[in-house]
Amino acid sequence: MIRPVSLWLREHREIADLVLLLPLAVVSLLSSRGYTQAGFAFQALLSVLLLAPLVFRRRWPLGVFTFVALVCFAQWLVTDQPVAANLAVLIAMYTVATESGILWSIAAAGVCCFGGLLVFYGH
Question: Backbone phi, then psi, for 8, in 5-degree steps?
């Protein structure tokens, strides 16, 4: 029973990634409920921009990481409110580390560390 499921998941990687991202999307949207309607719409759009590219993370790991990191940077420029979907940058970095070479892995880790410093020290 487990063997056919794992085989199907390997053959349909995008669908498997989508199913794995759904709980993070739900948590991200539920954590945005306390905002005004405009704030909720912004948080929902931000969550979609951060999570949707992860469906293609195994096909284009560097492109997905770059996009997600740029969205996080734009978020830092605009607001200081984190969303649960910010974990997407760590998921994308993990994918770069597993799918790309060591130099790309180090570069992705450096980008994440730089982003962490930006968040920690504020604007």
Answer: -65, -40
pLDDT tens for each residue of 33-48: 767 777 788 888 999 9
pTM of the predicted protein model: 0.84
Q: Cα(107)–Cα(97) distance, rounded to whole angstroms?
A: 10
- The owner of tokens 């940077």 is 73
Residues 6+ apart with CB under 8 A from 86: 50, 72, 75
Tokens of 32: 């945005």
CA distance 90 to 34: 25
Tell the burial category of 119 from Cβ atoms under 10 Å away from its Cβ (0-12, 13-18, 19+): middle
CB proximity list for 65: less than 8 A, separation 6 or greater: 57, 89, 92, 93, 95, 96, 108, 111
